Batch of 2 targets.
Target 1
Amino acid sequence: MINALLINLSDNVAVVTEQIQKGGRICFMCGTEERTITAAETIPVFHKTALRDIEKGHEVYKYGCRIGIATSDIRQGEHVHCHNVRSPDARIDS
Amino acid sequence: MKTFLGYKRPDGRTGVRNMVLVLPTNMCASDTAALIASKVPGAVSFHNQVGCSQVPSDMQYALDMMAGFAANPNVYGTVVIGLGCETCQADMVVEEIRKRTCKPLEVFVIQQMGGIVNTVSAAAEAVSRMVKDAALCVREACSVDELLLGTECGGSDPTSGIAANPTIGALSDKLVADGGSVILSETTELVGAEDILSARAADENVRNRIYTIISRYEDHFLRNGEDVRYGNPTPGNKEGGLTTLEEKSLGCIHKGGSSTINAVYDYGKQIPCDMKGLVIMDTPGNDASSIAGMLAGGAQLVVFSTGRGTPLGSPIAPVIKLTGNRYTARTLSDMLDFDASSALTGEKSIDVLGDELYELVLEVCSGCRTKAEILGFTETAVMRACNYV
């Protein structure tokens, strides 16, 4: 059962289409191939999860574009949001 | 080559509808224009909220919208209705229309005609003649490279950025690949995405223009003590899963697909027939006024994504509305034309949905009516010098 969306093949995050509890399966299509990872924590509906480990200072990609910079190490299956990502725009102090 | 059945106009453009437009030059002429249009099936009009008591920069937006509507290829001909004492004088509107098109045009000014009843009587006769002539136009096969598609989003929810807008983006890329043209609008949504967009600019001039329209927009707000960059994403956006301004803007600009950006146009300016591919128009986020700007630019139709559902239509063009929200698609089916929610369940890929939306676009261009057309919705607004968000 597909419950997450990988928008661009180069993205390192996916958007979940239903709330997923810690330990739950996050299942998404990567091209024509179905892939599954495990939720490391609860991911609210329409929020993002890391598809692979993202080191602190590395870029977060969605839509094939850079949407932010990781402010801490993010593990696969973790929730990716304001607590661990900041805008790449230096003008914004978030 | 993909085709649709359209109307060839004497000015070289191709329409997907065959309207006679009763065009009020200002608010005070709007009810008279509506009365005239109601007398003749086949005529359309709208309530014009602008056209008087305007400073020159504001008035230019109104003039461009009016001239652009008359020149829009969906319009066979126009009957201009002026009051007589307004800022946007009927002869100024006519002059602007004539700069853009050679199509049939007549003018009536209420204060010169001796009142509303006389104006309605004379203008309805002129409209009748125009409708009769317009009926002789027949649809013929036209290549999709003659299409100029406007894109818009409004009443967005978390599904807009991940299902509906990417579906429009897939359509945009396909239409551009087939030689057609697409307008990416809503400068509001470009804030934060300027570096990403400018990297796709065709040349240095386009690159500079992208930065110019965004900083112009931000400066306008800053002068009024507002900061659009720092307020976004909003707390509601964050709750919905959006983390950064870049992410929010990307969800919106995805409507334009991934093509090279060939030009940037100011609000309501006419986009030349030979300008192909993806272009940007500087429009506000307000849906009705953004759509009016693109139609004034010459777009024959608009594809509009919504999460919450919006009834918006246009007097002169089909507005195809789609949603990525399955609940909205089911409960608001009388205002939505396309359901893109299967992207979220993995039932269909964005690419497949883009193909299906493309098919719907060609059907609508050939005469199939949208939900907003069936209900006769004509919401129209114009950008103001004191800007909409």
Target 2
Amino acid sequence: MRHAWTMGLALATTLVASPAAALELTPPAKRTTVADFALDRLDGGRAALSAHRGQVVVLAFWATWCQPCKQELPFLSRFDAADDRVTVLAINTDGPETRSQVRRLVRSKKLEMPILLDAEGNVTQRLNPRKQMPLTLFLDTEGRLAATKDGFASGDEVVIEGLLKQLVAEAAAPAGDGAAQADEPTPPADGAAKPPEAAPGPASAPTAPK
Amino acid sequence: MRRALLLAATLLAPPAVAQDASVRLNDALRLEWRGDNANRRTDDDDYGVVVNKLDIAGSAGDLTAEARVDAVEVVGAPSADFQDDARLERLTARYPLGDLKLTAGDFYRQIGRGIALSLRKVDDLGVDVGLRGGRLEYATGDAQVDAFVGRTNSVNLDPVSQHFTADPEDVVVGASARVARLGPAAVSAWAVQITNEHRPVADQEFPDRSNTVGGALELTDLWEAVTVYAEYDLQQVRDTDAVNRAQAAYASLDVYLGDWSVLAEGLWLDDFRQQGSPNAALGSDFDYNQPPTLERIDQEVLNTTHALGGRLRVERSFLDGDLVAHANGLFKHTDPGTCARVAQAHGFAGVELLFQAGRSRLNASGGYRDERADPVASACAGAVPEARRIKSMAHGELDYVQHLTGRWSLHLTSLNEARTLDEADYLRGSTLLGVDVAQAGALTFEYGFDTQNQAPGVRNHFFAGVAAWHAQSWLQARAVIGTQRGGIKCVAGICRDFPEFAGARLELIGRHDLGG
């Protein structure tokens, strides 16, 4: 057991001494397309991922029993509302035993983004096979996976905002300038407005949440 | 193993070479050494285990496919229940044809609120049962219809006991239909048949079988304030050649009045159970349904087959949703109307607070739960058992994250219970104190205690260090060293008895995207 504790100390030292593993966007040429799916919406009807092509899409896996999820969701809701070019699809994974809690939580936290229901877990199995909660996927306007973020810790909201800025800027930049930064507000690209069923939000630069 | 890899490669080769194809790998490797966990058993001590789970998800055009290969190697196995194994555990392909969608291979299926069917993955308990077969879905506008058939396929390495378990292979056939947006209403109907592979009596004429039909009505946002869900299921069960009837109903009512919300739920299970074949790891038969429990998600639930009860939750939000206060009350009978009736009551309340612009959080709750034998005298064949308290529990929970600066925050989680079981008192709890560093990881110290078993040599206090490290954007590591308490762990009414842990565990999770 003494060796185990020594190993633990070494791991701890590594953690404290290591810089943050910066969460960066995958270069566009190396991104893979996320296959389309459709799920029931909490407020009725169905929602398909492909309906949001042309927008930066955040797929956020969450559950009502997940405390970090409940901390992350209000940030995501603000980012969703702050820019028409960004859509957050919050994929709820609650089973039947806690399904009745979903609507209540969404209302009490005043979450405005579309809430999709994946109680069966078939979409979760494909995109989040380890069922990590929360898990946040960032898709570019072509529907390609640009980044994946595991968990949520205080400070991650800055990382998320940075990624969204980069993705919005990248979409607005001329072809071949995918590394553009979002220093200046950029107008929505043609066809990039949110579909009518998504929660409408004021058009503005994806800066600090409102 | 070679056959499994070949199958996966065969399935995923077309996506890998197609122009618009993508393949995503997600690999979880667990290296574990278990020493003496001081539980007075020797058949779960002093061995090592290496478990690798590789998920492969690919797509090409409209075709999507997933596969999972599980492999386990045991070093110094203390009993014959441990087996080295490598197999293709999951294999699925999906293809849309206009409004139709075809699924072949392994898939999960859940109907309504899980009363009629709930085949899915409950990671925390290592329960993962899917269906291996086919499913055809048709969706147009607000109408959906599906039909499915398959044999139940469980994960063969039980992550709790590390033992190998065989697939139950029960046959499930079903169909469902749902029409939404009928004004504020959505209506669903379904039918499910389960035929058990296992025959409890060797010479029984027919296999055990259940036929279930049911339906649900959901009214959403009536007057922008009220949501109602009601479900009813009727079942005919043939059990060792005897035919019985069972039924179940569940209803919930959500009411929102400004910052107030009220949730009322009612559940009635009249001997209702979707029973499958026996499972060696669970030590019981599989249940292919998972009805609502009305309880907290991690509550030990006595009986999910025969119950009648309700619960009420009242909630008030403040500070634009950053502060939520809630109070909950539950009363339930299990085995209602029988000599074995048990009355359960549970009240708890708490607050959930986000502060420092959402960067810090405080969730605190506490309550009291009581279970009493409450026999119905007229239903007792002989002497009426004494009404008595079986169990009680006073509990308190805290989850507190204090943002310090930049990426750093302090995290304290504590769950503590004062319990009685047949009038014997004991304490149980865990406290974790750690530092979280966003995008770097976390360092946590864990202390646990369980005073239930006071036999000499049994460990009552547990200490562990937990380190989580985001090594790269594609690689995470998590290490646990020390001892962790075991005990009954429940998720949504499914409970498993976890052995105490003593040793070291390293988990590595990696992700790779190929093609694009």
